[in-house]
């Protein structure tokens, strides 16, 4: 069992409101025939603002894929170092005490992985193990938590650092004009998180069980088309109906591992795939609306941060100061595949 300590969240310096983004999209596509529908769908995302790694005018100019990749590498290293230093301080550990570094990111590509740069840039041991996770999308943060918990169980006394870094704005494609492209452009935000899982004492979320679930033949629901201009996000509207399939699996997982119904848990850390995903979780798990307030808050203030989301919501849970030792909770995220990653456990101090 591992204990997730308080995550560190680092935002890029630029911010854009939803009104500003709508203006940008209208300027790019002034004659689109479905603007009233698009505007309504964007407003329904309930995203008020987001942080982006470059000014919006630079992003919509769409420099070459090579230049975007250079920005990705530069900002990944810069923002991740800040997040890691704060996360280590939160966990009251030094870099040399970390045994494994897991990095999740699906919004760019680096080789070697960011793990190698972090080990060189900060005083980690040369023997530190590396585990990059690149293709699980929004589910990757929860997957990293589950793999870290398994590592801590296999190696008692180990400490695992999880870094999630998503620069979604670098995937913006200004020429795309499908309705799903407009919604995606108004939904995703940029952020970097770092979080330490300790296998010994600490304050936080002690992961006690985990599960993975993939709905077969749904590979087209969430995907990338890789073109000369970079990653083109593809989202099938069928993804909105997946929670109805996944919810019974989540319910059974909670009942078997925690011996409670989901509605009886004390806290939830849910990935903010969007307003509809949260609505469906509330409906199909039978939980009270206020139990997902922190996920709604994260969505409104930052947008969908892909693999960073669960750490952003977990950080808000720490900052709220409402948890007591012994509280039971569920963490879950969803991504390409269609994949669900979940874990349950206890708040400890």
Automatic annotation (TrEMBL):
<feature type="active site" description="Acyl-thioester intermediate">
    <location>
        <position position="138"/>
    </location>
</feature>
<dbReference type="GO" id="GO:0016747">
    <property type="term" value="F:acyltransferase activity, transferring groups other than amino-acyl groups"/>
</dbReference>
<dbReference type="Pfam" id="PF02797">
    <property type="entry name" value="Chal_sti_synt_C"/>
</dbReference>
<protein>
    <submittedName>
        <fullName>Type III polyketide synthase</fullName>
    </submittedName>
</protein>
<feature type="domain" description="Chalcone/stilbene synthase C-terminal">
    <location>
        <begin position="208"/>
        <end position="341"/>
    </location>
</feature>
<dbReference type="InterPro" id="IPR001099">
    <property type="entry name" value="Chalcone/stilbene_synt_N"/>
</dbReference>
<dbReference type="InterPro" id="IPR016039">
    <property type="entry name" value="Thiolase-like"/>
</dbReference>
<feature type="domain" description="Chalcone/stilbene synthase N-terminal">
    <location>
        <begin position="12"/>
        <end position="198"/>
    </location>
</feature>
<keyword id="KW-0012">Acyltransferase</keyword>
<dbReference type="InterPro" id="IPR011141">
    <property type="entry name" value="Polyketide_synthase_type-III"/>
</dbReference>
<keyword id="KW-0808">Transferase</keyword>
<dbReference type="InterPro" id="IPR012328">
    <property type="entry name" value="Chalcone/stilbene_synt_C"/>
</dbReference>
<dbReference type="GO" id="GO:0030639">
    <property type="term" value="P:polyketide biosynthetic process"/>
</dbReference>
<dbReference type="Pfam" id="PF00195">
    <property type="entry name" value="Chal_sti_synt_N"/>
</dbReference>
<comment type="similarity">
    <text>Belongs to the thiolase-like superfamily. Chalcone/stilbene synthases family.</text>
</comment>
